[in-house]
Predict the structure.
Amino acid sequence: MMDAKDKKILSLLLQDATISKADIARRVGLAPSAISERVRKLEADGVIRGYEVRLNPHALGKSLLAFVFVTDAKPSLGFDTAAALSGVTGLEELHKIAGDDCYLLKIRASGTDELNDIIETEINPVQSVTRVRTTIVLSAVAERPCMAGHSI
C-alpha cells in the first residue's frame, strides 16, 4: 500500500525524473536514505516501471503528429496485425481499441509526405488491414506522462 509520502515521491518524479533523492527528501520531509528505500520498493513493486528521456520531436524534425486508426479483418486468420504494426516508422504508441476501429497508432513524422509514405508503404500493405483513418494534430494542448497532473 502506498501512503501519502509515496504518492508525493511519485508526483515529484513525474515532474522531473532527474530530481535528486536529497531534493525529494527535503520536499517530502524524510531522510535521503528513506527516500532511496521507498523508491527501490516502488520500483520492485512495479509501480515505477522505469525512467525515460523525453525528446523534443520538433528539434528532431518530426513536427507532425498524427493518430492513425486501423481496422483489420475479423477474423484475421491467425495473422498478428499488432506485431506487423508495431514496427511502423515513427510509431510512438500502439493501442488495441474497442469500437469501429481495432488499433490506434500515434505516429510522428517530418510532414504529410512522410506520413503518407508510412501509411502507403507500411500500414496499407499489412495483409489484414481493411481500413485506415488518419487524424492530424494541429497543436498539442496537453501531453503528460502517466498520471502527471492527476492525484495519485
About this structure: The mean pLDDT is 93. Strands lie at 64-72, 91-96, 103-109, 129-136.
